[in-house]
Amino acid sequence: MLKRIRVRPLILVGALSLILSACASAVSDGSTPDLDPSVTASLPDTGESGSQVSEGEVASDSDPDSLGGADSDDPFANVNIRFNPRYWPDTDFSKHSVDYSEIFSGGPPPDGIPAIDNPVFESVADADAWLQDEWPVMFFEWQGDARAYPLTILIYHEIVNDEVGGAQVSLTFCPLCNATIAFNRVIADGTVLDFGTTGNLRNSDLVMYDRQTRSWWQQFTGEAIVGELTGTQLEFLPSQIIAWSDFKVNHPDGKVLSRETGHVRPYGQNPYAGYDSINSSPYFPVTGDNERLPPMERVVAIQFDEIDMAYPFSTLSEVLVVNDEISGQSLVVWWKEGTKSTFGNSGRETGSTGVFSRQLDDQVLSFRAVDGGFEDEQTGSLWNILGEAVEGPLAGRKLERITSGEHFWFAWAAFRPSTVVWSPSS
């Protein structure tokens, strides 16, 4: 089922002031304004916001069970579409793996939230002049090339198409789901894809598009859901959300995404202020109604074989360390204080997590939280939140990072409804 939740008036009032400043910035740099979905979702449809058919109407009078295809030239036959296909003359809408009624316009047109295609980086010393220690950054490392992507920049762009350590990658952030996901943007036939934002959402999650075929991709799953490449799967790459202080201390020679993005944006301000309150709800319709956790509970989630696991931050902040085993894989989940929410200036602590394999060579390590980090019980070595041993017999060694994601519960549960929620008694 689709569960629609209305925009809260207090949030709307606060967001409107930021929309005005965003529009002013857009005029100054000549780009399309970044409209806040929390505002545009509640505005009346003027015919330009992306909805071609009014709610409750269907797109044609043909067979109501038909979505087009062999029996119809109209792929939207009898579908209540809530996005504007006229923006997409080169997209093959006859191919799709999801019901078009599940896709909603978030407000902005295609690339209204502009991806960063030619990222500029600065030194840790330069970035430290404006980044605060507790601000969250997306940490990504490949072949020794360590980079930090501040969420205060990503929240205005959502996608960075980059090359890191020789790998062609896309670093993505969906604010509405709190989902930071890294992808290999080279598909099986060797094509390197460049991604942009469609302005559309499904399950309140970013729908991306590639500029090569104009196919649409679900950020949360990394799968093409509309167009020529429908069914194609991107490879997930491991990344992590950490505090700026953790990056600068552990990677003083790393690279940091600069505010020189080619766009004028109020980096450091937040168009989603307060959105992640534990008593809040997602702005857009979400499949299912999974109430095992509050919708906006942060979880760190992983997949092993057919098993989906979610570790709630509210529990992790109490136990700090979970030594676990899933499908024969020994892993550890860490939680560390010192990271603040990217949603507003309240200074609310969220903490950071790390998920790593406990297998090191021929030994399975067990961990506990100690002052300054995490200690393995086998050698007494001290480890940081990045999975790096910094003191003791194993100093200099690294644990294998397990691909995981920090998300709002509602989003993970919508795409992975059979998820097991970890608890100390489980």
Keywords:
426 residues, disordered N terminus, 7 helices, alpha+beta, 30% strand, single chain, Rieske Iron-sulfur Protein
Q: Report the major sheet.
A: 5 strands, antiparallel
Residue-averaged pLDDT, rounded?
A: 85
CATH topology of the domain at 290-421: Rieske Iron-sulfur Protein
Beta-strand content: 25-35%
Trace the largest sheet across and list its strands.
2-9-10-11-12
Specify the structural class. alpha+beta
Total count of strands: 29
CATH architecture type of the domain at 290-421: 3-layer Sandwich
Number of helices: 7
Radius of gyration: 22 Å
CATH class of the domain at 290-421: Mainly Beta
Query: Whole-Å distance between the termini?
Result: 29 Å
Helical percent range? Answer: 10-25%
Shape: globular
Low-confidence stretches: 1-71
Task: Note the topology.
Elements: E1 2-3, H1 9-29, H2 37-40, E2 103-105, E3 121-122, H3 124-127, E4 136-142, E5 145-150, H4 151-154, E6 159-164, E7 167-174, E8 179-184, E9 195-202, E10 205-210, E11 216-218, E12 223-226, E13 235-237, E14 240-243, H5 244-250, E15 255-257, E16 286-287, E17 298-304, E18 307-312, H6 313-319, E19 321-326, E20 329-336, E21 352-357, E22 359-360, E23 363-364, E24 367-370, E25 373-376, E26 382-383, E27 389-391, E28 405-408, H7 409-415, E29 420-421
Parallel strand pairs: 5-15, 18-29
Antiparallel strand pairs: 1-16, 2-9, 3-15, 4-5, 4-14, 6-7, 7-8, 8-13, 9-10, 10-11, 11-12, 17-18, 17-28, 19-20, 20-21, 22-23, 24-25, 25-26, 26-27
